[in-house]
Amino acid sequence: MEKGNGCCFFTMTLNATILLVVSITTFVLIRALYVMYQCGKPLRKTALQSVSTLIVLGSGGHTAEMLNLLSMLQKDKFKPRFYIAAATDNMSLQKAHLIEKSLVDTMDGRIVKRIFFGSIPALLSSDVSGDLLSQTGGNVLESVQFMQIYRSREVGQSYITSVGTTLIAIAHALWIMIKIRPQVILCNGPGTCLPLCVIAFLFKVVGIRWSSTFYVESIARVRRLSLSGLLLYKLRMADQFFVQWPQLQKKYPRAHYVGCLM
Question: In the predicted model, is pLDDT for residue 65 greater than 70?
Answer without folding.
Answer: yes
